[in-house]
Amino acid sequence: MRRVPRSAAVAVTLAAALVASACGKGPATAAAKGDRIIYATLDDCVDAGKLQPAECDTIIEAAVGQHEKSAVTYRTIDECEKAEGIERCERTATGAYKPRPSAFLVTLAPKAAAEPMYLALKKVNAYRTAKGTVVKPDGDTPFSDRARDRLSDLREKKNRRS
């Protein structure tokens, strides 16, 4: 039997790895697709281990900044709670009220980013983006266990008060 030169064996191994990653079986797939996941907190992001702790900190902080700049505002706590639900609002530095973020939608690649998520307005078990896009736990975007538990707890609390 003829021996295969070592360089050829290495080349074949590398080619197989590239083909596997292109077919969704390798680590490069997550970076190429821009996978997203919902985390409940900064610690949830860190504990998942998909990003470095400093990356989680940076993107969650940016998401909080995005929330502070662009979340819908209400003049009074009553207006906010009527629209968002009891105990779902926070007071801003200007005296207005905004919905409190409940989780963060984290995009892992090509560049890590996060956006604030709020409890869905209707009686559905879901989060929503600031633009109103609803994300359900049984959809295409995975939820961390903590984000799923928090959603259930918040929904249960909102339903008891509605």
What does this structure look like?
It is a single chain. This protein is of the alpha+beta class and 162 residues long. Helix 3 (42-48) runs antiparallel to helix 4. The chain has one domain (37-161). The strands form two sheets. It has a five-stranded antiparallel sheet. It is 45% helix and 16% strand. The chain is globular and about 40 Å long.
Distance between the termini: 77 Å
Percent range of helical residues = 40-55%
Quickly give the structural class: alpha+beta
Strand content: 15-25%
Quick one: overall form?
globular
Major sheet: arrangement of strands: 1-4-5-6-7
Largest sheet: 5 strands, antiparallel
Number of helices: 6
The average pLDDT is 80
Quick synopsis:
The chain has 162 residues and is of the alpha+beta class. It has 6 helices and 7 strands; from the N terminus they run H-H-E-H-H-H-E-E-E-E-E-E-H. Strand 5 (113-119) and strand 6 (127-128) form a beta hairpin.
Write the topology of this structure:
Elements: H1 6-22, H2 28-33, E1 36-39, H3 42-48, H4 53-70, H5 77-84, E2 89-91, E3 97-99, E4 103-107, E5 113-119, E6 127-128, E7 134-135, H6 145-161
Antiparallel strand pairs: 1-4, 2-3, 4-5, 5-6, 6-7
Helix pairs in contact: 3-4
Keywords:
162 residues; two-stranded antiparallel ribbon; 6 helices; alpha+beta; globular
